[in-house]
Amino acid sequence: MSSHAHFVLHEEEHQRLEESLRRLRQDANARAVFLIDKNGQQISSAGETENFDTMSLASLTAGNVAATDGLAKLIGEREFSVLFHEGTQDHIHISIVAQRAILVVIFDERSSLGLVRLRVKRASGDLERIFDSMMQREEDGAVSGPQSPFSEITDEDIDALFSE
After folding, report:
1. 104 with 93: CB under 8 angstroms?
2. 65 or 140: which carries more pLDDT confidence?
3. Per-residue exposure over 128-153, b if at least 16 CB sit within 10 Å of its own CB, e if not
4. d(Cα 148, Cα 111) in Å, to the nearest integer?
5. Interatomic CA distance for residues 25 and 115, integer angstroms
6. pLDDT at 84
7. Structure confidence at residue 59 as a pLDDT band (50, 70, 90)
């Protein structure tokens, strides 16, 4: 687990993530696309998401990635950054994005593994840039420090409040 596992998702970044997922879903001709944090919480999604139990999908995917990380370490790999599960009708392509999140693409015969891999590669770059801007915003906020709701209150304000 990376130290970047926890981050604040602002509305602007959430919209950018959703747009990137919508574009990936369309370009890959996928049924649905999910972005999940490594703790198993859904961050964003696009496509036919109502057809899935998204909470279970997110937690099982995170567990799958964690188990696969254990397998990778057993054979001397740092991680397996891409997982693929082939079903009779539907297939799942799972990839790690920016070592912070898990990208899940569910597709059927209307697409192909090659097309999904190609489109995921491009989308991963977009998502990584969004995560980088989120981390930069957090670092900038940490440098300047959190704004206290009391930072504008002066000693005179306090004295006036209690002298009434």
Report:
1. yes
2. 65
3. eebbeebeeeeeeeeeeeeeeeeeee
4. 51
5. 11
6. 95
7. very high
Place of tokens 């590669």: 121
Task: Give the DSSP letter string of 31-83.
Answer: SEEEEEETTS-EEEEEESGGGS-HHHHHHHHHHHHHHHHHHHHHTT-S---EE
Task: Show contacts of 140-146: CB within 8 Å, 24+ apart.
Answer: none
The one-letter amino acid at 85 = H
Question: Domains of the chain by range and CATH?
Answer: 11-163 (3.30.450.30)
Q: Report the C-alpha gap between 55 and 27 in whole angstroms.
A: 25
- pLDDT, position 164: 60
Residues 62, 66, 71, 77, Cα dihedral to 10°: 100
Query: pLDDT value at position 151?
Result: 55
Half-sphere exposure (CA, 13 Å, Cβ side) for 51?
10
- Tell me: pLDDT of 123 over 70: yes
Its pTM surpasses 0.85: no
Q: Tens digits of per-residue pLDDT, 40-53?
A: 999 999 999 998 99
β-bridge pairing 101-107 and 32-37:
antiparallel
